[in-house]
Amino acid sequence: MKASFYGLLLYILLFVFKPADHIPSLKPFRLALVVSILVLLFVIISGRFKLSKGLIPYLMFVYFVLSFFSLINSSYTQFSNISIVFLLKPVILFYLICCVLDNEEKIMKFIKVFTFAIFIDLFISILIFRSGQLGYRLISFFQGIGADTNEYGMHILMIIPFLVYFIETEKNLPKKLFYIFFILLSGYAMVRTYSRGSTLSAGVLFLMFGWIRRKDKKFIFAMVIILICILLVTPQKFWNRLSTITADPTRADGSINARIAALKHGLELIKENLFFGIGFGAFRFASMRVVAFGEDTSHIAHNTYLEIAVETGIINLIVFLLIIILAIRTCLSNMKKLSHYEGSIDLKNMNQALLMSLIVFCICVIFLSMRFDRFFYIVLALILCIQDRAIELEKKNEERELSKL
To answer: What global pTM score does this model have?
Structure first.
């Protein structure tokens, strides 16, 4: 399984850094596609292709099938520039992670490699942003995890829970200082995306940490110090942009008005095909028919839940929400099992970090169209990988108890 594991790591690095976008001569080789196929072949040949416990892997398949059905059943297919492959890639990644990361060592190594790759992306992006080459709002230079400023802000927030727990468990001082620097850098970057949805999610994340660690005075003190440091380097432009969060069209900026228009268009379009949707990738084109409102219709839905409901139907939205709800329940179940059966501190911490990342995603996508977001599928897969380890721990404990009889 070593070949499939290192192949998976290579695929993740290709996803983050997208070398073909910066070296045009690499494009014909389709490296990411080739690597993902090779990893899948390694998994099948080794006989390790198996689904994790529970309904989530099956619901993921149903979610993809319903999305594909809406596409072939749509009258807007010829107008859409969104391919079902955009969804197929993260879904395949989800299944590959579930199959390949079959022990704690691989899970932790995968998370650390992915985290370090994001640090490299963030560090280089900030340097280029400060030189004035990335525009008014910070985006990823490599554009693998942040081609859009709001998406970048969300991904920065989703990685912070992992950094917090790395700081707590890391015994090596230089590494601990590195993770502290990473958190400060993340805060610096997040406010320079000027993402209002990410700001709201950051507040929720701060409150979650505060509640979970409310009895730990040192932790609360460190949180306050980090917050103060971030506020000290927050530009005035950030506060000016936050002030535009209003439903009053006379005060709201174009982005807010576009979201309000998209919401009204979406609610109207849902009536067109309530159960199976108007077609995968058809929101923008179908919304042009809703002329009664008179607002700009050139925007996407700006809301993942709305977009799924409109394009692929209410049934598929329910499937998507079930996946999220079951993932949260799985995290809580993992927490109990790992605590009761004395699982490793690393798995306990990563499980809690994944839960926080998932909640951040659920809030951010109220304002973003992110149904193709690979980070989300990575988080889901890692939750199931930890679930499998927790079940193994439970079985070992039962066998130990039986052997005593």
So the answer is: 0.91
Tokens of 356: 């926080």
Between the alpha carbon of residue 74 and those of residues 78, 273, 276, 291, the distances in Å are: 9, 10, 9, 20
Neighbours of 167 (CB within 10 A): 17
User: How distant is the alpha carbon of residue 73 from its chain centre?
Assistant: 29
Query: Residues 236-253: pLDDT tens digits?
Result: 888 887 777 654 554 445
> Would you kindly state where each structural domain of the chain is located, as residue ranges?
50-243+304-404
Cα(16)–Cα(93) distance, rounded to whole angstroms? 13
Q: Are 166 and 352 in contact (CB under 8 A)?
A: no
Spatial distance between the Cα atoms of 202 and 216, rounded to a whole number of angstroms: 20
Count CB atoms within 10 A of the CB of residue 91. 18
Spatial distance between the Cα atoms of 143 and 375, rounded to a whole number of angstroms? 13
Alpha-carbon distance 61 to 320, whole Å? 11
Report how far residue 59's alpha carbon sits from residue 55's, in angstroms, rounded to the nearest whole number: 6
For 152-183, how does the pLDDT look when each residue is reduced to its tens digit (9 = 90+)?
999 999 999 999 999 988 889 999 999 999 99
Is the Cβ–Cβ distance between 311 and 281 less than 8 Å?
A: yes
Confidence of residue 294 (pLDDT cuts 50, 70, 90): very low
Q: How far apart are CA 163 and CA 178, in angstroms?
A: 10
Q: 45-76, pLDDT tens digit by residue?
A: 877 777 888 899 999 999 999 999 988 887 77
CA atoms of 335 and 344, how far apart (whole Å): 11
**Contact partners, residue 362, CB within 8 Å, separation at least 6:** 324
Q: What is the spatial distance between Cα 36 and Cα 90, in angstroms, rounded to a whole number?
A: 11
**Cα separation, 28 vs 249, whole angstroms:** 47
Q: What is the pLDDT of residues 101-135, one digit of tens each?
A: 989 999 999 999 999 999 999 999 999 999 988 88
> Measured between alpha carbons, how far is 63 from 324 in angstroms, rounded to an integer?
12
Give the distance, in angstroms, between the CA of residue 253 and the centroid of all CA atoms in the same chain.
27
Q: Residue 136 contacts by C-beta under 8 Å, 6 or more apart in sequence?
A: 194
d(CA 177, CA 242): 31
Q: Which two tokens stand for residue 385?
A: 């990988």
> Considering only CA atoms, which of 375, 393, 379 is closest in space to residue 335?
393
Q: What is the DSSP letter of 51?
A: P
DSSP strand E in 267-360: where? none
